[in-house]
Amino acid sequence: MPYTEANLVKARATIARYPFAKSAVLPLLHLAQDQDGWVTPEAMKEIAGLLDLAPAQVLGTCSFYTMFKRAPVGKLVVSVCTNVTCLVMGGPELLDSLRLRYGSDDDVFVEEVECIAACDCAPVLQVNYEFHGPLTPQSASEIIDEYKRGERTPRTISGSPTNAPLAPSAVVG
Amino acid sequence: MAPVETLLVTKRLREVSDSSWTIDAAVGSGAYESLRKALAMEPEAIIEEVKTSGLRGRGGAGFGAGQKWSFLPKGAFPRYLCVNGDEGEPSTFKDHMLVERDPHQLIEGIVITAFAIRCNTAFIYLRGEFALGADRLAQALRDAYARNFVGAKILGSDFDLEIILHRGAGCYIAGDETGLMESLEGERAMPRIKPPFPAVQGLYAAPTIVNNVETLSTVPHIIRMGGEEYAKLGVGRSTGTRIFSVSGHVVRPGNYEVELGMSFRDLIEGLAGGMRDGKEMKFFIPGGASSPWLVPEHLDAPLDMDHVQGELKSMLGSGAVMVFNEDTDPVQIAWRLSKFFAHESCGKCTPCREGSSWIEKVLYRIANGLGRPADLDLLLDFGNNIVPGLNAPFAQTTICALGPSIMSPVVGLTRWFRDEVEQRIGASGEPVELKMRVL
């Protein structure tokens, strides 16, 4: 999807913040993901156009980073840590239970991630980059169901607040 | 006497814990006072003060901060300051806390440092997953600009500074300083070969300083106290305080800011409350996944970067202390850490790209009871191709330090648990049930 008019303004403001336009690749990909829920091929082409790059360069950068989803992931990305502290505190069991429970749910995308820097709350997970922990399979699915029922407001798929006035890179100045 | 914390960098977020990230709470508890003091000093005098303090980088490598700043070539402009907030070392969670709960302290440290090194553009590279941290830092920047702590002619001086908040997107190796610069330039975060060092040719090929969040958050305190006073804290060349992230099988996991030189025992058994559930400790990792493991006999060693590296052949690294009890399977831990490195290897250097995934595969089969008699030697042979000699301080055949880091779990495993692993391999002639799931 192309950027909406408002997002195009944000994109141009973001580019203008950097001494060299190419630095805006990551913020612009986040912005596209905020808007569409994933990074579409059309978005990468549009970003390439805005930054005077080949689309393949944008894809090359995009595909390196795990937060960018190049296929639809539904409404909620649930990132479960299984690195060593979470491993000994029950992270793998948490991941298994959520994969079983939400395996066929198109709204919920459960993924295994590396350490997300909240080990004092192990085992932890993030729902659209909002931290939750320490959790049991039971308490985790309760939280996810609250998001599903609209009792909690999720961030965007890139973790931005849904009411953000501007993309983080463009907020100041 | 019970061990106590020494609060400098974590003082505000403890004392006004309900609002420490807001500008009113920050200014109300002394934020930006050091900035006023610094702006009245000569930039060189600030660098000298930080050199006197002995402040060493808190990201992992432990390089002298003031010394790093003085490597900038004279008269070369523009130059940049990059703040490394891409905290990704497994079980490290201090920068996460500092960004979310005391963003103004970080901003103050950035402005003072930028003034000292005569730089007018700074970038904060924040780990993409820190969504709340990004919100709070963005708000803090807006407020700091509004009060002229950042921006043009800061507080009536002639000094201008732009600070740009840049979110990462999920990548461990962007925490390497040259990987960070590649990422900031819109590329894959693949580290660059050194030299040229960033201070000479870094971001956009201009002189660049990269400092960790905790390092910069410490700078205002050095200006406030004076370098000499700060250097009185700590032990030997490890001056001041550090935040240690203690996690795993302890009663009170969390971040503890202590004066360097305290013993691991006081940190783990005193502050973190010791082992939970009445179990014994089996081993601990002293400084993040990249540091070789230690065992209970080392508990009385001091938290001193030089001692841990020189005497114990490990390192304090990022200050992440992971504690494991007697029920922990060390092979499983080594496997999981090697899986991390295999996943995060950027793929640029062959020894790391190939070695990490082979080490993971071999550890996986040992952990699952399918190990072969020659497997430990095979692991060490792989390792020798990544880290010739296999001894700390690590030599390396790769551009960045991720390569040598892969071997830390293997070195830990073979150094302390060789008998246990060999027994398991020896007993694995019989068909066994897979203990771990295939992920």
Please supply descriptive tags for the structure shown above.
heterodimer; A: 173 residues; alpha+beta; Arc Repressor Mutant, subunit A; Glutaredoxin; 2 domains; 4-stranded mixed β-sheet; 7 helices; 10% strand; B: 439 residues; alpha/beta; Rossmann fold; Ubiquitin-like (UB roll); de novo design (two linked rop proteins); 3 domains; 4-stranded parallel β-sheet; 10 strands; globular; disordered C terminus
General description of the model:
The complex is a heterodimer of chains A (173) and B (439). With 173 residues, chain A is of the alpha+beta class. Chain A folds into 2 domains: 5-64, Arc Repressor Mutant, subunit A (Orthogonal Bundle); 76-170, Glutaredoxin (3-Layer(aba) Sandwich), CATH 3.40.30. Chain A has helices at residues 5-17, 25-36, 41-51, 55-62, 84-89, 91-102, 137-148, and strands spanning 76-81, 108-113, 125-127, 130-132. A 4-stranded mixed β-sheet of chain A has the order 2-1-3-4, covered by helices on one side. Chain A is elongated. Chain A starts with a helix and ends in a 25-residue tail after the last helix. Chain B has 439 residues and is an alpha/beta fold. Chain B has 3 domains: 11-231, 3-Layer(aba) Sandwich (Rossmann fold), CATH 3.40.50; 245-318, Ubiquitin-like (UB roll); 330-425, de novo design (two linked rop proteins) (Up-down Bundle), CATH 1.20.1440.230. Chain B has a 4-stranded parallel β-sheet with strand order 3-2-1-4, sandwiched between helices. Chain B has a 4-stranded mixed β-sheet with strand order 8-7-10-9, covered by helices on one side. In chain B, strand 5 and strand 6 form a beta hairpin. In chain B, helix 15 runs antiparallel to helix 16 (375-386). Classes of the chains: A alpha+beta (173), B alpha/beta (439). At the A-B interface, helix 2 and helix 5 of A face helix 8, strand 3, strand 7, strand 10 and helix 14 of B.
